[in-house]
Amino acid sequence: MSGLTYEAMATFAQQAGTVFFGLIFAAGVIYALWPRHRQAFQRLAQLPLEEDEAPHG
What we know:
about 55 residues; 2 helices
C-alpha cells in the first residue's frame, strides 16, 4: 500500500481546510480594516438610518 489511509487523508483535509478558511477570514478582516475603505464602510453603516424618499405602501 502507499501509506495513504482514509485517516491520513481526513486529517490532512481537516488541517488544510482550517488553514485555508483561516487565511480567508484574515484577508476579510484586513480588507475591512484597511484605512482606504473606512469612508465607504462609514457611509454604508449610516445607510439604514437615512430617511426613505419613496412613500411606503
